[in-house]
Write a structure and sequence with these properties.
Blueprint: E1 2-3, H1 7-16, E2 19-25, H2 30-44, E3 50-55, H3 60-65, E4 73-78, E5 81-87, H4 92-107
Parallel strand pairs: 1-3, 2-3
Antiparallel strand pairs: 2-4, 4-5
Length: 108
């Protein structure tokens, strides 16, 4: 999972890829760090999925742009539009289901 720190890089990555998993974390958040590892391992199972993360303090405008006010938050974006959001208590099974679902849609 790539670590992106600039709004321009994040927007470019989303625009250049059909399906993206975007993880947003807060600094000094133990849950954020634990979930980042788990979400990264899940994302690694899907080679065609572009996954990246940022810290909301590194790029505060991203928090407002994506309406993220706390971490951890995971967004699944298809063609630049949000199709799934998980926040605070991220259900990994539900996330995996949605990744599979939207990967199948993107292949059609």
């Amino acid at each position: 999972m790539k670590h992106l720190t600039s709004r321009i890089d994040i927007e470019r990555t989303i625009a250049d890829n059909c399906l993206c998993l975007f993880y947003i974390k807060s600094p000094d958040c133990g849950v954020c760090n634990v979930m980042l590892d788990k979400v990264a391992r899940l994302a690694d199972q899907f080679p065609s999925l572009t996954s990246f993360y940022t810290d909301i303090t590194e790029e505060p405008l991203i928090a407002g742009q994506f309406l993220v006010y706390s971490g951890p938050t995971v967004l699944l974006l298809m063609d630049g539009k949000e199709v799934y959001r998980g926040s605070q208590f991220i259900d990994l099974e539900e996330l995996e289901y949605n990744i599979n679902r939207f990967l199948k849609l993107s292949e059609q």
